[in-house]
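S., here's the first fold you wanted:
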Amino acid sequence: LVLSLFAIDAKYNFPCSLFADGAGESLQYLFLAGCEFHPRAKFGCFKSLTRLLLCMVHITDRNLHVQLSLGNTLQIKKLYRHCKDAAYYARTELPSRMPNLQSLTVVSKTETVNAPMLPSKFLHLKFLVIALNGMAYDFLSLVSFFDASPSLETFTLDVLPGLREPVSIFDDPSALRTMPEHHHHDKLKQVGITSFCSAKTLVELTCHILESTKPLERLTLDTTKGWPWPRCSEEPGQCYLMCRAALVEAQRAILVVQTYIKPKVSSTVELNVLEPCSRCHSNAVEF
């Protein structure tokens, strides 16, 4: 079932009664986007639901857990959530509500609270994608997700642009923070960071991953916007053009890699650093 309303001011009340009386029990995948969700009590139960995607959905936690009536939330293995403070919600609420998640994607353009250290676990989580803006966020706090996910194999972080730049490691000469030695991540093999920059807390997170993850096989640091923005090496034409400020920050990020990251990369780790294309951005910049 696909329902798309292309008009910006379109209003439509979906007949939720279609899912009543067991009609929704066979539904395995539910994707809600750009809407309000206030179902009535007799909405039905999705006993077979294993994938849930919520993108810009006005929904309370009570509606999600009770009125949506997901049946047994232990069945849900893949979740995508896009909302304010999505990372904080995921860390504080999801381990108890959906403990069998295997794949989790959270997107937050307004993340106001750092991820707390908690004893709760995602025992089965293998794939984690976090996208949030780096305006004032402490990226090192994301170690909480690693500690909570002993089976985590792949981690991707997308640093979204904020209203102002985070504190650069070049502007704060104090020593890098480190986590206690007991923080080890025994299954993590693939790590990728898009829009990698000189933010000090991001450098601290990257150094922590290298120091605490023995199984790590590949670390990719992309100083550009990354996928889906085009690169001329992959498609005919021109790379996605970056403004001068972005090019300057990319150069700062490359210097960060040379100074702080490379010395910590072991011989068993493949380090990939993606830089702005020299052909499409031929005007060199300095900072």
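And the second, which I think is the more interesting of the pair:
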Amino acid sequence: MHCEFQDLDDALMDRIVCGVRDIRLQRRLLARPDLTLQKAIEEAVALEAAERSAQEIRKASSPRLARKPVPVHHEEASSDEAFSSEDDDVHQTKRERRKFQQKSKGQSECAGCRGNHSRAKCQFRDAICRKCSRRGHITKVCQSAPSDTSPTTRKSKSSLQSAKESCFALTNCYCPSGTRIGQTDSPTRRKLNVTVLIEGAPCDMEIDSRSALSIVSWSTIKRLVPQVSKRQLDSHRVHLRDYQGNDIPVVGIGRFQIAFKDFSGLLRLVVVEDQQPSLLGLDWFDALSLEVTGINCISNTETEGLVKDFAEVLTAL
């Protein structure tokens, strides 16, 4: 007695195609556009018989080379999880069969978008590729070699080269193996100084975005806070070098009351032994609301123009 499961033969056929262990048989079944349950069984039985005969011939000619026959359409399922996995495989098998059937019917793939339609009916036949700038296809099907210098990139590079803006060398900061501080002798560099209050005493500090830490000398901190002693400073775990590679002795690290504009609070300050200028480094930037401008300005004018000109193409993507 059969249940009311529709297309029982198709379901059984998909189970057979999905469950065969012989990849050659599975490919043959998938390649047949007119596959039915009966034909699938005949193919499986025929290949199994051929495999068994070949095994017997090899066993008779050379017993050492005999192998155990492997059933080609054996299927096991011991749990609901196994059935769920088989259902996924069945759906995948159906999709693969549709692909083979479409190819067997001579339906070609569109060269402009890889869709299942003719080239003349493609909606992207007048589109301009964003990779090679040629008309007639979209980026995902473009076969042109990647170019290192696109027109937009070349234009951006030329505009950057023509700009006369000084940039801070942030990549020269490193810690804790060696935090570089100090200044270079660049004639184009303009010093920026601000006055902050350290424990209520004004201190003129140079803003140095190339220094990862804020630094003052021992003589400066002693002048600003006479009651401080070296024993009150924490033991240092940083190694400082100037831009000539010379080591800078560190006395210690302390937390001092800092006031600047609307900010007032405790900030870390590195105290050094030598007569070094007072530097306001990157570690204070967030607290004091300082920003580096002039190196991260990106104009969207050109991009917005392209989006506006090719709105129809970009919307379709």
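Why I say that: The domain at 170-288 is CATH 2.40.70.10 (Cathepsin D, subunit A; domain 1). The chain is about 35% helix and 15% strand.

Talk tomorrow,
H.
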